[in-house]
Write a structure and sequence with these properties.
This protein has about 160 residues and is an all-alpha fold. The protein has one domain. It is built from five helices and two strands. The protein has a two-stranded antiparallel ribbon with strand order 1-2. The two termini are about 25 Å apart.
């Protein structure tokens, strides 16, 4: 069961990073188009700023969630490394559990905000404002799942693989 969870998390993390990368490329293209249209065509489209901001929200939150799985977020390990192994392991589990709780709260709040704003429209794009809160819910859920996997990995003594390969 733990191996299946780990494999699922690896797949989800790679998918999140691929979508985040696509979002970064999209945002860059939108901003490039906006600058070109403003300074060369002298006619800046009204929708590009809102669309690039939306892409930014999506790719930052997805990449942030993947960072929990790929372990590339900054953290202080001074206390963890100075404790005996058993206490260090307990501290890691508590840390993963706190991040899991944060992810659950983030997901719940994102769903609540998306539902509350689903009838509001982003005027420049003509889409529901909920699309700005869906990535909050999605990344919160991913953070919770990835933290659970990290906790299981710590409990079982699993050696974490380098996710950058």
């Amino acid at each position: 069961m733990a191996e299946r969870l780990s494999a699922l998390c690896t797949w989800l993390s790679r998918a999140a990073m691929a979508l985040a990368g696509a979002g970064l490329v999209l945002m860059t293209a939108l901003i490039t188009w906006q600058v070109f249209a403003r300074y060369v065509l002298r006619d800046s489209p009204s929708w590009t700023e809102q669309a690039s901001l939306l892409a930014l929200i999506w790719f930052i939150l997805l990449a942030g969630a993947a960072g929990v799985h790929q372990n590339f977020h900054l953290r202080l390990t001074l206390l963890e490394t100075s404790l005996p192994k058993a206490w260090s392991r307990r501290l890691q589990i508590v840390g993963h559990f706190l991040v899991l709780l944060f992810g659950v709260m983030m997901a719940a709040s994102g769903v609540e905000l998306a539902l509350a704003t689903r009838t509001h429209e982003l005027p420049a794009l003509g889409v529901s404002r909920a699309v700005t809160y869906i990535p909050v819910a999605l990344s919160g859920a991913l953070i919770a799942i990835f933290s659970l996997d990290r906790m299981v990995g710590t409990l079982t003594g699993r050696k974490e693989k380098d996710q950058w390969n």
